[in-house]
Design goal:
The protein is α/β, with parallel strands linked by helices. The strands form five sheets. Strands 1-2-5-8-9-10-11-12 form an eight-stranded parallel β-barrel. Helix 8 runs antiparallel to helix 9 and helix 10 packs parallel to helix 12.
């Protein structure tokens, strides 16, 4: 297993929104490079870069026109190479977003596939046999090209699905088996993309919708033929690029069995992340940090333990603060509660992924008009708030691609000066995590988890105690009477005879024997 991932702390950067060096209103690679010292100061030693490939940006760059070219929006090929070299010089790894399931409708291979005369790329994408064929269960787009038939898309009309074949064949007139020559050629094309960027020096990939390749391939928790593809890719990496990592957007331990080094715990109903911070009344549950104390620590403990045991030390859980698809936790939670949330998330077993701006409490902007098909996601992709100057220090442009938010507290410059800020807390948290090997071990034991009572879990010799309520509570845990917290958020907890006195809205770590 790739060793560096074990102690990695990732910082996710949405390139459009981080830092605009040339004043055109969009973030760019030169801007990102200029902020590497800042990223490193957070305690991050790795960067996940959202798509930087050439794209018409009909889905924020997740519609790739050319997989082997950097988008001019973000800079030149030299700018990318300089960014990568600078990150590596500072001891930081870089993984790129890999979009394997679909391309842009402007991708040259797709346009060749869409030609009316059969050619070598006709079967690189999934086409029905007739122009009036719109099969149930699939999104089929017709009338845009002269080829007789309609093309299947994964998501939007601009994202034609690459042909990795079908596990179950329902209509042999257009559905090809997963082991046909065309599907095998698509697999080899995917490997060529991976090799290109690894040869260029990147350290791995976060794989977008990793479970979306082979069609009719069971439910999300199985995907046997899609898993077969990724195990083949993993074998290639182990042989040719043993230090490269694959992180999947799958949200199921199946991803580890499919060959991924790590899998994201996304905001899916009923999973530990959701139960900790996202669950709402209409879902039938409440988040653990619900202000009225309606959360359930036992549900979190059961769900996380299930994931943890299913992975069984063969890979890692990718633990997010949020991401480019997920509403930010602020303003739902105050900065003081965010400290408790991040302390809990990032002391559980897994690899931390901190989304840009979450370290200062940037807010989700509800009902922001959609840009580049971001739709509800647009409000979580606003420009980074560096200071209170024009455009929050993000850009000198007269108009930025998304409106900037100016906030006297929620910006880097202000929080740098405040020792009690969320920004400086994040630095302290990751420094504390780095200094204790138990946090990167595989050990986890929930020792108390009941309702909205303090959530208590052991990581090796470390005991973490969380109180989500604005009221003092006790935890029925027996410790040495002289034990004192070695790390605290809020007031320090106190050890009593046969319990721990836990202050309101607090997080404490004890070192035990």
């Amino acid at each position: 297993m790739t060793t560096w991932l074990k102690s990695a702390v990732f910082y996710e950067i949405y390139p459009n929104s981080f830092c605009d060096a040339n004043g055109d209103g969009y973030g760019d690679l030169v801007g990102i490079t200029s902020k590497l010292d800042y990223v490193r100061s957070l305690g991050a030693n790795a960067i996940w870069l959202n798509p930087i490939y050439d794209s018409p940006f009909m889905d924020g760059g997740y519609d790739v026109r050319d997989y082997f070219k950097v988008s001019p929006r973000f800079g030149t090929e030299k700018d990318f190479d300089m960014f990568l070299a600078a990150a590596h010089a500072k001891g930081m790894k870089v993984i790129l977003d890999l979009v394997p399931g679909h391309t842009s409708e402007q991708n040259p291979d797709f346009l060749k596939s869409a030609e009316p005369v059969e050619n070598e790329l006709s079967d690189r994408f999934i086409w029905t046999k007739g122009e009036w064929s719109f099969p149930e269960g699939f999104k089929a787009i017709g009338g845009r090209h002269n080829r007789q038939g309609n093309y299947i898309v994964n998501f939007f009309s601009t994202q034609p699905a690459l042909n990795y074949g079908f596990n179950r064949i329902d209509d042999p007139s257009w559905q090809m088996p997963h082991d046909c020559d065309a599907a095998k050629k698509t697999r080899e094309w995917l490997k060529s993309v991976i090799r290109f960027w690894l040869d260029r020096g990147v350290d791995g990939f976060r794989v977008d919708m990793a479970d979306s390749l082979v069609k009719n391939d069971g439910d999300r928790c199985e995907k046997p033929k899609t898993s077969e593809i990724w195990r083949d890719v993993r074998a290639m990496l182990d042989s040719e690029y043993p230090d490269a990592v694959l992180v999947s957007e799958w949200c199921d331990p199946q991803a580890i069995r499919a060959g991924f080094h790590a899998d994201f715990m996304l905001d899916h109903h009923g999973n530990p992340y959701n139960l900790l911070v996202r669950a709402e009344e209409e879902e039938g549950k409440f988040s653990y940090f619900d202000k009225k104390g309606r959360g359930d620590a036992a549900a979190i403990a059961d769900a996380f333990t299930s994931w943890h045991n299913a992975i069984g030390g063969k890979g890692y859980i990718g633990i997010i603060s949020c991401n480019h698809d997920t509403p930010r936790l602020a303003p739902t939670y105050s900065q003081e509660v965010l400290k408790l949330i991040y302390a809990t998330l990032f002391t559980l077993p897994g690899v931390p992924f901190l989304y840009y701006g979450d370290e200062i409490g940037m807010k989700y902007v509800k009902d922001m008009p959609s840009v580049e098909c971001g739709f509800a996601r647009t409000g979580t992709r606003t420009p980074m708030q560096w200071d209170t100057s024009v455009n929050a220090g993000f850009s000198t442009a007269a108009k930025t691609f998304l409106p900037t938010e100016t906030d006297k507290v929620v910006n880097v410059a202000a929080q740098e000066k405040d020792k009690k800020s969320l920004l400086n807390f994040i630095r302290a948290l990751f420094d504390f995590r780095k200094s204790n090997d138990d946090f990167i071990s595989n050990h986890l034991e929930f020792v108390h988890a009941k309702g909205a009572e303090p959530l208590c879990y052991r990581r090796g010799k470390l005991l973490c105690v969380v109180n989500p309520l604005d009221a003092k509570q006790t935890a029925p845990i027996t410790l040495d009477a002289k034990a004192k917290p070695i790390f605290s958020v809020g007031k320090e907890a106190k050890v009593l005879k046969d319990k721990i006195d836990v202050p309101s809205l607090s997080f404490n770590v004890f070192k035990t024997k």
